[in-house]
Amino acid sequence: MFIAITNSLFSREIAIHIVDKNGSSPIYGAYFSYSTDELPSKESNTNKVKTEMTDSHGNANINVDGTIFYEVSFVGYRTKSGSIPASQSKITIVLEEDETMLEDVYVEGKIDERPIKLSAVTTQVMSAERLVETGHGSLQQALQHETPGLNIQKVGFGNEMSMQGLDARHVLFLMDGERMTGDMAGNLDYERFNLHAIERVEIVKGASSTLYGSRAAGAVINLITKKTTKPFEISAGARYGMMNERNYDNPSTKDYMYMYEKNVDKPNLQGWLSAGFHRKKFTGQTDLWYGSTDAFNLYQDSNDEKLYTQEANEGILTKDTMVIAQNMRPPLGIEGNQHVSASQKLYFDFTKNVEIQLYGTYFHMNTYDMLKDLVYTFSNDMMCGAKAKVNIKDLFTIEAKIHNDFYNRSKRHERRDEINKVYESRIFQPKFILSSKHFKRHNLIAGWEYISDDLTSDRFIYNTMATRSLRETEIYAQDEWQANDKWMLSLGMRGNHSKAIMRHRRFQTMPKFAVKHNFTEEFCMRANYSINYRNPSIKELFFNWDNLGMFQIKGNEDLVPEKSQYISLGGEFTNDKLFLSATAYTNIFRDKIEGIWRVYDMQYNFEYKNLNKQVLTGIDILSKWNISDHFTLNASYSFVNISKTDGLQLSATSPSAATGSLEYKLKKDKYALTAVLSATASGKKRFDVQDRLYMADEGTSYDAYYRVTLPAYGMANIATTHSFNNRYRLTVGCDNILNYKPKTLGSGITVFNIPATPGARGYVQLEVTLDKKEKK
């Protein structure tokens, strides 16, 4: 399969170009192997076999005499072999995707797209096409069922995300590499992400502050949106699911509460439309999405219990003490919503060296809670920007970007024309990036970024709308050096200057070092060390909000940036049947910023402070086994151990989590069937919550901690997708077929982070796709 060569007097240069099956996307990192010997087997001596790797344009050049035979291989594609006669000086080789192999092929970094096997850091990539086929109705559902250790759960005021023991403040969400605003507690409106407009989801595991800056101390989740390569393509679909809970039957328009009753019982409905076209140097992509869900209640099975342990209350208690509330806890209302989003992207490829992109998105959502106050919350987000990319011969590439994201949230009365603004936030971020592959085996990148972050709210000064701001300037540089076919080294540095941190050092530096070694074509290992940071947010610095005397959130202007040292070591094995990856890591935090409940005699305060030290140690395991042409088994496991603070476990993260799925695929003529049984499980949680304990025999109250234990749980989904003529797709499925419902919601004023599920619910989904293929 390799090469037979007819010697000639002079060698010639052969230009190799490797693309995917539609001929429009070059394949970066494909292996082109050739030799002066004839078809050597893997067991024979292959000293004369030479291998070249294609660059980001899918190109490679070789100098050789006579006729050659070649073999081209790349993860996710079928291996292809052939010959090049002595008279030919260039060739384009088209690879076809292999559906039985791993889909996780590319990761888009600051430099360009690159195969995961070439990346020096651990990255998980999920195809949105597969996520839809699996039956996931939203991005948050897909992330929970496909990523071990990632949870998006209810905590009483909305969604709360955690990953590898860190909350959303340490997980950076990006869309096409750009930041988004709109969060108050580190969490975004995850409903704004249209799963049907996404091409793939990239998750960079571990700290990545060197390339991505603050908030990337835990992970980076980058959503890469669709860009059609066809002359014309349009798809439309709808999804209908069972209601979570019918709260009101046939509400009457004469009822004073009619609007409330109607809004909390919205149908579980989605509809979407995607359209794109590609004409020579011009490409356009439009995506529309509508969705609604109904509100429902979760119920606790028994009265609140607080276990005050002797261990956590040394000097106060001589034995463990259980306190049981006299009254049953009221139901926890899970809000429903109604949302719509639209996005437009335009691409101009003036020449092969000049590219320009313009983009804009709009998102609106109404949120309906279960409080009978005739008030609902609505949010708006508008994001827009421009990108320009210029290639200066083969020397370097210059990129300039301007990005804006404006978000606001308000409350509106359902009967009166009365709107009260809650807050608004804006991010303005210009970037300048210089990258080069001019030097052989080096990928160089350097960049400058400016971040302007403004938040306007009445929660800084009582009953007064005021604005607080952060201004950050960052520079960074990184070199990825492919030393040889075995070794890849990555070295980087980032500097950050923040104007908001007035009382402490404003400039910080964060180095990074990563190494990857290929022992064979199938097995490699990665090691990573980096220093990372997170600047305190506007809320953590400046908030001063009293919630009707029930509790108060207090910011702290004396906060310093938290720093962490991240160390990881992992191995990866890949062939056409099996993928197995395991990574062990530790994340050592200094001055970690946490919100701590402080309980006073008449007041609960949520106060931000820097912890002296916190250590997270864990392991991530990912696996995929192509059992046969029809069956594929996916399994993953995550474990994290979080150190205690002053003998207390303040983190509510489950130490262990697992996901798994069994997929069956069948193709026959113009019909295709995909059946998926997927499951996710979370281990038992134990953590301490601060409270005020009154000792009746002493007539005195003390600061005390009670122990919370939440049971392990598991949820499973099933879905079948039927495709006809590669145009029509019907999906029927059921979420949470085990009918799991949480039984413990919280204790006191604390609401524990729990999966917000009403139990088993079925759905049906239909999608139609029409396209026009490129003329040959």
Structure description:
It contains five helices and 49 strands. With 776 residues, it is mainly β. The strands form ten sheets. It has a 22-stranded antiparallel barrel. Strand 41 (656-668) and strand 42 (671-682) form a beta hairpin. The longest helix has 8 residues, at 139-146. It is globular, with a radius of gyration of 28 Å.
Report the average pLDDT across residues. Answer: 84
Query: Low-confidence stretches at least 5 residues in length (pLDDT < 50)?
Result: 1-10, 39-46, 99-114
The rounded Rg comes to 28 Å
**Number of helical runs?**
5
Task: Work out the strand percent.
Answer: over 45%
Defining key terms:
about 775 residues, mainly beta, 5 helices, 49 strands, about 60% strand
